[in-house]
Each structure stands twice: as structure tokens, then as C-alpha cells.
Description:
It comes from Lysinibacillus composti. This is DUF2294 domain-containing protein. Residues 5-113 form the Na+-translocating membrane potential-generating system MpsC domain. Pfam families: MpsC. The protein has a single domain (5-113), classed as Threonyl-tRNA Synthetase, Chain A, domain 2 (2-Layer Sandwich). It has helices at 5-24, 50-55, 59-75, 77-88; strands spanning 30-36, 39-45, 92-99, 106-112. Helix content is 46%, strand content 24%. By secondary structure, it is an alpha+beta fold.
Amino acid sequence: MDKSKGALEAEISKALTHWEKNYLGRGSVSVKSDILRDMIIVVLKGILTPAEYSVCQEKEGRLTIKTIRNSLVESGVEELKEVLLSITGEEVVSFYTDLSTQTGERMMIFKLSDDLQSKL
């Protein structure tokens, strides 16, 4: 692999921002990606809209927003896996995500088929 770890992480963040805008209709305020062993850990900040924050004041609203937002991301995960394969050359074998309705942050963890960090 010719690219540095930092350059690859920046490319992943940029690609995820692009995917968010195209697939979800809006992007997060900031995206930070980290390659750790056989994982790519992504933190997206500024996910929720003001209206969603308002709905999240009630427990039922929090559960609804989390469910809907997670369903939206999960529905596009195959495209995300292809994007990451094209950037890293590694296949994504599993995907995990959650959203904090308090901070508006989303965490994404992509488990890769091989230890990407050791190749950099």
C-alpha cells in the first residue's frame, strides 16, 4: 500500500461524508476515521437535526430516532462496504453502528477481512 495511515484515514472520512450527502441527503458536521488493526472506527459528529433533538427529549422519541437513523444507515451498508473495499483493498466482513441521541454522534465500526494497520 502506497498511502500513509493518515492519508488513508482522511480518504475514508471524505468518502463517508460524500456517501452521507448522496444517500442520506445531508452530511455530518465532522468525520474522523481511525484504522486500528483489522478495524476502521469512524466517529461522525453533528448527525441529528434540530427537530430530531427536540423529538429526543422523550424516551419514545429517542428510540424512534435511533431506530429510523440506524435503519437508514443499514440500508446503505452494502454501498459503504464497496467504497471501503475500493479505498483499502480489504473486504468488510461485519459492520456495527450506534447513535448517541444526547451528543448527536454516530459511531461506525467496520471489521475487515485482514489487519490493514500492519500493512501500512
